[in-house]
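This part of the workshop introduces the protein records we will be handling. An example says more than a description, so a record of this kind follows:
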Amino acid sequence: MRPDAKVITIGELCQYLRVHRSTLYRLLKKQQLPGFKIGSDWRFNVEAIDSWRNQQGRVVNEISQTSPEKIH
């Protein structure tokens, strides 16, 4: 992580992503969200979150562009 990287708290991330705090904790528990702990508090690098968001968007686009198999 760069020394000048912006780091935010879980409350700020809730506002940034416009999701409920419990959603973030669920993703953290499943290790699906990039973050790190300082003591008992979670912190998030904004660049890592933006990269994660872009990756999630690519996965959704790939799934939506895949044609479903015909079921007989």
